[in-house]
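Progress report, Aim 2. The chain analyzed during this reporting quarter is listed below.
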Amino acid sequence: MKTSLVRLIGALLLSLAGLAPIARAQSFDTPPQPGAPRPLTIATPVEQRLPNGLRVVLAERRGVQLVTAQLVVLSGSEVDPPQRAGLASITAGLLTKGTRRHSATALAQAAESLGGALDSSAGWHQSEVAITVTVPKLDAALALVSEVVQQPVFAPAELDRLRAQALDELKVAYTRPATLAGQAAQRLLFGNGAYGHPAGGTPASLARIARADLLALHAARYRPDNAVLVLAGDLDAADALRLAQRHFGAWKAGSSAPVPAPMPVGAALAQSAAVIDLPVSGQAAVVVATPLPPLGADRATAAVMNAVLGGGYSSRLNQEIRIRRGLSYGAGSALDARPDGATLRAGVQTKNESAAEVLGLVQTEFDRLAAAPVGADELAARKATVIGDFSRSVETTAGLGAAVEALIVAGRPLADLGQRIDALSAVGADAVQRYAAANLGAAGRRVVIAGDAARFAQALKATTPGLSVIAADQLDLDLGSALSRP
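Predicted structure tokens for the chain:
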């Protein structure tokens, strides 16, 4: 280190004497031009089927020596029984917490010895177990996946532990205005139907869940004719089918009866707006949500529309609310695509005093999308963002598997995967405007603001007829009717 310092001092002295030039950073008047986009080619996944009804879908990714395996059961939070919100989530979470052969610790150690980790979770219309390993370890990894899916024990001690963790998380989440506003908006959109309840449960519903409920859900839904094995990585179709047969061929449904249908998704409540009073909150969360039809052939149009509205830093919501007015650290929107009905939800966290102003700005941006076509430059930039996000997401085997799973859950053709970029590129400004005009009307919107109501509720009542205000500690998300209190 002393020698390096001496050399540095010597070089400096030479430069000062005019004997050596000092290196200077090159200056640019304009940023360098981006490189040409690289084409992304994704082959259509191959689908096969075992005699027991299990679908086997392979998305090949040659040359990476990795495979992501996902066993996806096509039932999730939408099948939670009344007063048992969170049952699907708890059931999936406990799959990896003990089987007839291994404890939770032994399962984790077995997965780690393969260089992977067993993950299990549930969402809307899906419950899954996933692991990513190198190709030589795939056989052993699938043995673990098969075991946890078919042989969970749902040990009472593990149920109590997971329930306690979920309750602790809810205790923290319910102090956050964004969480309360988002869940209340879902209730306003879907009422007491299958889509209306919180997927993670509520303190009351989690307390009601018993081991018998887990066993009943597992017997009814975890069956090969209601499941798909998704493999993404360096594998061919013949090996995929052979491994699936070895590890899942003996899997049989617990009953010969067909998979029971979930309850209806639910209809929006007549009430269109609510305030959740959190007097100790230093900020307010503003949520505007609207229902969308199931995303089919128009899913690319919906994705581009969302990108324009609130998908990213350069979106309209963020530009107007954060950059131009400084009313929030971030404003955005997101699509929630479910097979029987999607939603578009915009969310902003702001000062309590500016909640009413922010709500007006969000509503204005909804209206503007329907009123006029998006400019050519803005549309091109937002499409590039969506295309870039998709391209990056499928570079890993886990991302590729997730993209395939999303198509399966949505009931879309697997060929859509390779056509995604072309579909996004083809979306025009007129299509975005027509879609917005058909689906973003004021009558369908539901508004929830959570925060210190004393600082904004009066201003809202002047512009929002039928507004109800409810104290956060009186909010019962098990019942949509709890949002209608005056």
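The mean pLDDT is 91. The chain has two domains: 46-248, 273-484. These observations will guide the mutagenesis work planned for the next reporting period.
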